[in-house]
Design goal:
Helix 3 (about 60-70) runs antiparallel to helix 11 (about 285-300) and helix 12 (about 305-325) runs parallel beside helix 14. The two termini are about 40 Å apart. The protein has two domains: about 5-55 and about 305-395, Aspartate Aminotransferase, domain 1; about 95-275, Type I PLP-dependent aspartate aminotransferase-like (Major domain) (Aspartate Aminotransferase, domain 2, 3-Layer(aba) Sandwich). The strands form four sheets. A seven-stranded mixed sheet has the order 4-12-11-10-7-5-6, sandwiched between helices. A four-stranded mixed sheet has the order 1-2-3-15. It is α/β, with parallel strands linked by helices and about 400 residues long. It has 14 helices and 17 strands. Bound molecules: pyridoxal-5'-phosphate. The site of pyridoxal-5'-phosphate has 16 residues, from helix 5. Pyridoxal-5'-phosphate (PLP) binds near residues 109 and 226.
């Protein structure tokens, strides 16, 4: 079939929840993807910050193939070795104490919310606890995760949602302080807001929230689903700030393509929260996911991926800043490490579509941001190639 036939079949069969770009992907290698016509694309989207190790990493692929031939799935009624290894690597990298594996980021958020509610329930002996989340946040599409997502447009058709959620202004500590009551059990935020438009938390904000949480025995839940796993130059973005969450959600690059998420907690939370019967999953933490997670941490640590990000990210920032200088309709750059955004006064989805024609994948965030979340293995030469291709698109918009 040709590209248009594939696209027509897809649109006839799949629920139309995405306006997809006109691109049928066939395979990938390193930081490049190839479509069914063999055209090459430099990938600065990485399947939305998932493919941190790029495509077809030989060692990773071998580990998965080996696991396929051993056992894929066992259920959580038994123990399995890959997930024990994965858990130990994840806990060592994060300094957290316990982990629950899920199949997605959304489920990791759901689990973290339940853990926070159960913690407060155990402490106080009654339910009815509330959560403070952030405007402009994104935590997922299930009803619980949607309830804490600060985007009215996503939430509105699906009400009534989970009650007891209020929204504060991101990077405004006072707005969080004002919402705290004796019913508050958790403050939830992305360390770097992703979908909302690439906004890193300020140090004052995150440290201030940590202090407020400590004062009121409120749990700090950090969503590291997009910004975690080395993307910012630390394994988890909060490690830049000298704070530590009580609960953390992780996914996307955790499995580098295998669908897996997790929520992490400290021992203090574990003691008072989820007990046998409180939470579960059939697939979550199966041996296949375990083999992926374990290998991802092993490779990232051995290859010093955070060191590499710290080296290449300043170069990306410099080249993006130069674009802001050059094009009047680009008004700002925001980001941390290899999660970067350009604020753009021209239609960003149009620009992303035009970039595809130039052989470049970039995506958007919020309503007016071009988002750059490349594989973490990119080199400076890939940054140069990206800028060259993007400039060809941007030149068309320069009146
Ligand atoms: C992608 C994302 C989610 C949802 O993860 P899924 O795997 O799509 O369920 C939640 N929070 C953040 C910050 C994300 O970027």
């Amino acid at each position: 079939m040709n590209k248009n036939e594939y696209m027509e079949e897809a649109e006839a069969a799949l629920v139309h929840t995405y306006n997809r770009y006109g691109l049928v992907i066939d395979h990938g290698k390193g930081v490049y993807l190839y479509d069914t016509n063999g055209k090459e694309y430099l990938d600065f989207a990485a399947g939305i910050a998932v493919q941190a190790l790029g495509y077809c990493n030989r060692e990773y692929n071998e580990a998965l193939k080996n696991q396929v031939d051993r056992v894929l799935h066992t259920s959580n009624l038994y123990y399995n070795v890959p997930i024990i290894e994965a858990a130990n690597r994840a806990l060592t990298a994060s300094g957290m104490d316990r982990i629950f594996f899920t199949n997605s980021g959304t489920e990791a958020i759901e689990g973290a919310i339940k853990a926070a509610k159960k913690y407060a329930y155990t402490r106080d002996g009654h339910a009815g606890h509330e959560i403070i989340a952030m405007n402009r946040s994104f935590h997922g599409r299930s009803l619980g995760a949607l309830s804490v997502t600060g985007n009215e447009h996503y939430r509105e058709p699906f009400g009534p949602l989970m009650p007891g959620v209020s929204f504060a202004e991101f990077n405004c500590l006072e707005s969080v302080e004002e919402l705290i009551s004796e019913r508050t059990c958790a403050v939830l935020l992305e360390t770097v807001q992703g979908e909302g438009g690439i906004y890193p938390a300020s140090e004052e904000f995150l440290c201030g929230i940590r202090k407020l949480c400590d004062e009121h025995d409120i749990l700090l839940i950090l969503d590291e689903i997009q910004c975690g796993m080395g993307r910012t130059g630390e394994m988890f973005a909060w490690q830049h700030y000298g704070v530590k969450p009580d609960l953390m959600a992780c996914a996307k690059a955790l499995g580098c393509g295998v669908p897996v998420g997790a929520f992490f907690m400290t021992e203090r939370v574990a003691e008072k929260s989820l007990q046998p019967g409180d939470h579960g999953t059939t697939y979550g933490g199966n041996p296949f996911a375990g083999a992926a997670v374990s290998k991802v941490f092993e490779i990232m640590e051995r290859e010093n991926i955070t060191g590499h990000v710290k080296e290449v990210a300043p170069y990306l920032e410099k080249r993006l800043d130069a674009l802001v200088e050059k094009y009047a309709f680009l008004t700002a750059r925001r980001g941390l490490g290899l999660i970067q955004g350009l604020v753009c006064e021209k239609p960003v989805s149009e620009i992303a579509a035009a970039a595809i024609c130039q052989g470049l994948l970039v995506i958007t965030a919020g309503t007016n941001v071009l988002r750059f979340v490349p594989p973490l293995i990119i080199e400076k030469k890939h940054v140069d190639e990206m800028i060259e291709k993007l400039e060809r698109v941007l030149d068309e918009y320069n009146e």
